[in-house]
Amino acid sequence: MKNFYCSIFGHKYEVSKKVTYHVKEYSCKHCNEQLTTDGNGRLTPLTPKFKEINSVLERIHKKKVKRRALILDR
User: Bridge-partner residues for 18, per DSSP?
Assistant: First the structure.
């Protein structure tokens, strides 16, 4: 039934996770289809490869933000 809704009215994507400032993961509110942004900014299906890439990007981004905050606090 959920896929039926999306096939008629289209998906309703919501941001499910902010990986970095520019990379986000999206999921459909009705059918839970997951997408992410690729290197060109286009939406692509969230495959295991992209999940791994996003987790590495998130870890690097968090370290960078934390390091930047420490430098600014001085």
Answer: 24
**Number of separate domains in the chain:** 1
Q: Is 44 left (phi over 0), alpha (psi -120 to 50) or beta?
A: beta
The predicted structure's pLDDT at residue 18: 95
Question: What are the pLDDT digits (tens) for 4-55?
Answer: 888 899 999 999 999 999 999 999 998 999 999 998 999 999 999 999 999 9
Task: Give the separation between CA 21 and CA 10, rounded to whole angstroms.
Answer: 26
- Dist. CA 60–CA 36, nearest whole Å: 18
List, in order, residues 6 or more apart from 11 with CB less than 8 Å away.
28, 30, 31, 33
Strand partners, 45: 35
Residue numbers of the domain that contains 56: 2-73
